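Good day; I would like, with your permission, to put a structural problem before you. What I wish to show you is a protein chain and, alongside it, a tokenised description of its three-dimensional fold. Here, with my thanks, is the record as I have it:
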Amino acid sequence: MQPLPVPCPADLIPDATGGDAFNAVYRQAKQERAVFVAVERHGPRWTVKADALTAPQHSIDSAVYDAVRAAVIRLIRSRQIRPDSSAGPVYFVLYEVDGEPRARELAAALHAALYGDLEPLARAVPQTS
């Protein structure tokens, strides 16, 4: 596996479906001391996962955390993800995303946000007026 670029574009987000695939992607992130990000297929739906514990030197700014948390709440309220999805502060899970393209878009936006670039997250999960 090649190291993921930072931020990672949607088409390069790893598919960690299945125990072996998940373990391989997570292990690679730990070895690279990088934020883990992946999508997993669960039947017709997808799960987005990100974990900053794999990058012990990495810190998440409070403004970034607040923006990610607000985006997760918007996704829950619009019923795009399950209400038991996790908004961090270091482990993020978005359950039951409708389709692989949307899961990859959200994973890439979350990954960018965790590295300080909030623009992809703002595009993927716009604020409603």
